[in-house]
Amino acid sequence: MENLTEREQQKFERAQKRVKSISGFYKHLIAYILVNLFLISRHYFDLKPGEEFFKFSTFSVAFFWGFGLAVHAASVFGKNIFLGGDWEERKINEIMKREKTSKWE
Mean pLDDT in the chain? Predict the structure, then answer.
């Protein structure tokens, strides 16, 4: 992108990084769904007569991977939930403004 100010370039790069992290989360989510559907259905069709389907070992991979997926979701979407979408921008501006008026410059 040409003819962008330094500030616009920084905003563009942050947006690009954010889109990449969101895309990575959705790829992780799709892999989670497909792999766990495969594993659980494979277990279902491999059941021996009298074997119980609803036990922890059937869903253990989905459970622990789901915990990891939740952590990934929190890292991608979490700061917007708690601090608002433009929190970083506002904080940067606040700090820059404070430093500009500081006596120590």
Answer: 86
